[in-house]
Amino acid sequence: MRSGELAALAGVTVRTLRHYHQLGILDEPERAANGYREYDVHDLVRVLRIRRLADLGLGLEAIPGVLDDTGDGHAVVLEQLDTELAAQVARLEEQRAVIAALRRDGASPDLPPELARQWHALVEAGQPRRLAELDRDQILILVQLGGARAVSMVARLYAQVEDPGQRAAYLELGARFERLTSETATAEVDRLVADTTSFLGRMVADLGDEELDLDAGEALLDAHSRDLLNPTQRAVLGRIQAALAR
């Protein structure tokens, strides 16, 4: 039989047969006079055995040892496979638990689950969408660069605005920042810088001496916000950052 017939009988594709040949788990038959490879029923059985093992979850690279094992090595392979599958089940159960929590809270799935609920709560409370998206994007950068420590710090910052009074003040500052344009009066800009610095200064102070060493991360965060904010907002943000640094 030719490769197409073998593939159809075995329930695989011709491309899969070629892959098996490349891996060395299925011998390539000699070509007949017409130039086509001719397979026989023994090749069919070999492919069916490979498929069965693959369906169990065995990696293709491990299959030759099982196919050619005439002793009791199968027990060891099955024990290893069962251990791997148990770990996969545990990971899937953990993923389902995270998904259930995200669905329950109506939270964004593209944020770390530890922060998604708190971010969504601010959006629901009225945080301007554009600022919420800016927060989300910068959180992703922070977490990527700072890992679990960054997640912990952001979660602690978010926790400080869970109090209704604190949240209202935070959202009001955000709304004022969102309204900034080149037409905003200098006095209003100065008041916003002072009010925001005071508010955020208290939040940062509550973190104690904990800091993140982000190296090039600060440049990435600055570049990201620079692309999304207008000149007045960028200037205000720079003044706030400088004041907090002092």
TrEMBL record:
GO terms for molecular function: DNA binding; DNA-binding transcription factor activity. Keywords: DNA-binding. The keyword Transmembrane helix does not apply. It comes from the Bacteria. InterPro entries: DNA-bd_dom_put_sf, MerR-type_HTH_dom, MerR_fam. The keyword DNA-binding applies. PANTHER family: HTH MERR-TYPE DOMAIN-CONTAINING PROTEIN, REDOX-CYCLING DRUG-SENSING TRANSCRIPTIONAL ACTIVATOR SOXR. This is DNA-binding transcriptional regulator, MerR family. It comes from Nocardioides lianchengensis.
